[in-house]
Amino acid sequence: MSLYADSSFVVSCYLTDANTPQAKIYLSKVTAPLTLTALQFLEVRNGIKLGVFRQLYSTTDATAAWANLEKDLRSGRLVKQEPKWLVAFRVASALGNRHSATIGTRSLDVLHVATAKCLRVTEFISFDSQQRTLATTVGLKVGP
Q: Cα 83 from chain centroid?
């Protein structure tokens, strides 16, 4: 079993926000590691820094969150994995062309779902309703 979590879900696992309780409950029920790609790595790091800018988190909280994420990478709770990015972008383009006008997905939403498809994960995790709808539409199991 492999899990692909949208970047905002990952941020909710390391910093406290409205989705953190649900994220932690979900994670307590799964043993499979979360896949982490370069795209997620970039978005999570930027999301944490943006939270500091918006004064949602302190610099101390952000530093601790990043240290915990790195610890989870070392322990295997998070596993780095990369799709063939050219293929992922082609799949994303096709998915966006086929579904964005009816589902309302943004480019990065489509790219996350396409990346999950290319990595052949068993479950796509997101709190975003458009991402969840797209993932379900293309045959991915969706959590939480």
A: 14
What is the model's pLDDT at position 2?
87
Among 105, 58, 46, CA closest to 124: 105
Q: Report how many domains make up the chain.
A: 1
Any domain includes 87:
no
Q: How many CB atoms lie within 10 A of CB 101?
A: 9
Going by C-beta distance under 8 Å and a sequence separation of 6 or more, which residues neighbour residue 63? none
The CATH number covering residue 13 comes to 3.40.50.1010
DSSP H stretches of helix in 54-143:
59-75, 85-103, 107-119, 129-137
Give the model's pLDDT for residue 122.
86
Domain that holds residue 55: 3-80
- Per-residue pLDDT, 142: 95
Q: Which residues of the chain have pLDDT under 70?
A: none
Q: Give pTM, 2 decimals.
A: 0.91
Q: What is the per-residue pLDDT for 137? A: 96
Please give the DSSP secondary-structure letter assigned to residue 138.
T
Nearest residue to 24 (alpha-carbon basis) of 44, 15, 45: 15
Residue at 32 is within a domain: yes
Contact 124, 9 (CB under 8 A): no
